[in-house]
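re: that complex we talked abt at group meeting.

here r the seqs, copy pasted straight from the sheet so there may be weird spacing, ignore it
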Amino acid sequence: MTSLHSNTLFHWSTDDFLCWFLRGLAGVAGTIVILIVTFLIMEALPVLQGIGLLRFFTDPSWHPAEGFYNLTPMLWGTVFAMAGSVLIATPLGILSAVFCHYYAPVSLGKLYRRLIELLAGIPSVVYGFWGLVVLVPMIGEIHPPGQSLLAGILILTIMILPTIALMADASLANVPQQYLRGAAALGLPRWATIRGVVFPAAKSGLFTGVILETGRAIGETMAILMVCGNVVQTPSSLFDPIRTLTANIALEMAYALGDHRAALFVSGLVLMAMIVALAIAAEWISRGRIYG
Amino acid sequence: MAETLSRSQNPRERLAFVLVWGAAAVVTATFCWLLGDILWHGLSRLSWTFLTAPPESAGRRGGIGPILVSTFLILGVCLAVSLPIGVGTAILLAEFTSDQGLFGRMTRRSLDVLAGVPSIVFGLFGNAFFCKMLGLGFSILSGGLTLACMVLPILIRSTEEGFRAVPANYRISAAALGLSRTTTLVHLLLPAAVPGLLVGLVLGVGRAIAETAALIFTSGYVDRMPESLLDSGRALSIHIFDLSMNVSGGDANAYGSALVLVVLLLLINGAASWLATYGLHRKIATI
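got the structure back, here u go
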């Protein structure tokens, strides 16, 4: 934009004041992330200096009262729940978007999109509650106790599905019309067009969607806490109860003191590191803004 | 196109057809199951008394009156703090910085990361910063401030889009008339960008009201009627969590509370999509 400095001093100074005022506000907004990381590090520092980062991965178990701080079982819990739900939600979400754009009649597609938007707005605690009273007893009948990795994966899948579906929907909408006309002129059938023309053209948007949903799956707390059983162990089957990093913080923060509290902040730092890595990956893939 | 393609005899096309419709059917069925279940069990609990009465015996009986009050107070604090900061930042990003500038780029980048921070980490931060360091303790104020940090990225993004949707002509004409940028902003751009701002506001409210994990260690569990902003207050989502996990026999009231929360959110989301589709275009076209 061209320089709009007016030549009277009064106007210039009002504008100047406004600009600096806005910069102040933006500065506050921009420093929150730094503040968060600083506080996590500050609170985690006593235990990091006391016992070192390595012991969080080599200790025999997670028994903070006895001074054992092994995070790996919880890390595996997070990774398994995330991987399972991303594996199921990604195809379902992308097919949902394909359905909206290329298979459903226009009105049905609109209705379906509205439904996905509604699904995106339902709070995690409601998903968790539903999982606890409906899904967990059903899984319990197949293989007790019911509160399990499987329940966590299923609930997470329903929760992250709208994220990938809406992202895929947006990136399919951006595929240029002439690609589709070209494919139609070549006589390509529908699925061949989607697989050979639409998917490659929308690739970066789809990848960004997958990364965003992965971030949601890692960060989800309440729903996972309610359906996973929260036993600290590396799961050996889908029916084993697990505890994730996020659930661990939510469960123990209430009574944690001293080194134990600091250890929970360390797991917060681990979560932050995962999210930052994902944000960098998303930036790298899309070269665009990803927040929201 | 649709008719000729769906009659295609190619087996791969048929398989894809079945898969796509199948995926849509599975998602729809799950959604109806979830919503139907909440509606079916929740409707019988719902009444005026349930909405206004205080909870009894840890929430097994009684209503959710004080909890609704706490929820709205937390929301109020959250908006009172996040609105000025969010709108100010959005104006700066959309109107006063170039996309290449260092300050704008850094702010944007940090908001990108902020949007991805897990809610439980916000909880940790809120507990360490607002509750412990600023000495606010477990209070509605701490909870609201923590949520304010959390909704900022959403708020900023939609407001910024609202400003970017205002045609460049407005700014150029105003500059040609010799208006200062402040005047242009207050009298031309701000009114034209209100719909975007409202969408952001509504989306932010939706995210804040749905939040649980960030509030457990900041606003606390107390289910009494809050007397000031420094009192601990239990939000609706925490009430649902507590009833279903820690209170045996609390499921009936949990269903009722879940229904109230879902209905609130559906109203909020409906408002957002209505504003986004109608408000945004009409306002700019007729100003």
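couple things i noticed - Chain B has two domains: 8-43, 48-286. The longest helix of chain B spans residues 251-286.
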